[in-house]
# Entry
Amino acid sequence: MQLSNGKTLTLILLSALLLGSEVHIESHHLVAPDRKLVSSEHLQYKQPSIVSGRTDVVAVTPWLAPVVWEGTFNPVLLDSIYKPQNISIAVTVFAVGKYVMFLKDFLETAEQHFFIGFNVHVYVFTDQPTKVPQVKMAAGRQLTVCSVPSSKRWQEISARRMELIQTLIEEKLQNRNDFIFCLDVDSKFHGRWGTESLSGLVAVIHPGYYRDDRSRFPYERRPESRAYVGPGQGDFYYCGGAFGGLLQEVHQLAKTCRSNFEADAKEGIEAAWQEESHLNRYMWINKPSKVLSPEYLWQDFKPRNPEVYIVRFSGVVKNYAEIRPNV
# Structure
């Protein structure tokens, strides 16, 4: 007998109650459906093909989520679908301590490349509100400064991001924004980042590990941690510096990662890469509905690999000893 996921879950819970058993459900990820993709009847564009295209990269995951590379989408077509929907995109960026020095480039290049022509609201979390640069923003785009306390450990700054993202969504963004992207401030835009990145839960492949076997991924390997990913597990290694999706999906991610981080902390455990470790654990269980290629967070110190036709967003070269308080 075939049952829907909801009926199956209900039967499991009822059976457990009757038997007096304890049930632990690791994940019941419910992906909100994407909006209808309605195109203009007058739009003309190059005929798509399912037999020709890029052959040097994989453009779909084993769970059938698109992997976005240059040459796998039509930006004009996608913009024509989403523009009439009047969608709004929130962006979080953290500029704490000396990281505030990267904010000007981040904001100025976002004005040139990030969701141009759409409603965008940037939320800057900083302990130095007076140092937030004045950047001229186009119509429909705005910036809000959110004050946060300083920290003597960069790990604490990193770890608190999930808490702050969760709180922002709960207190300010409900019913005001459709999508949210959480991005690293020590990065800048070089090319288009737009509607091709929209989906329920969006992950970005880390540029440092996408050619490696997963045994080399820097997952949290201690079973005691709630960020644990064991041998032979995991799909890709995702960036903590760029992720996003529908508001409700990112809220669930942030809430879960925060809860797991805090539970670890009570037991004296700090995951290998703080919130990035917890994010990778979450996205191994809760598969992203769209995966962005390393074009969407490259590293300026790395030469561009041949399959990377364009760098859209990248981490700038920096001296961590100078900008991190406890290095």
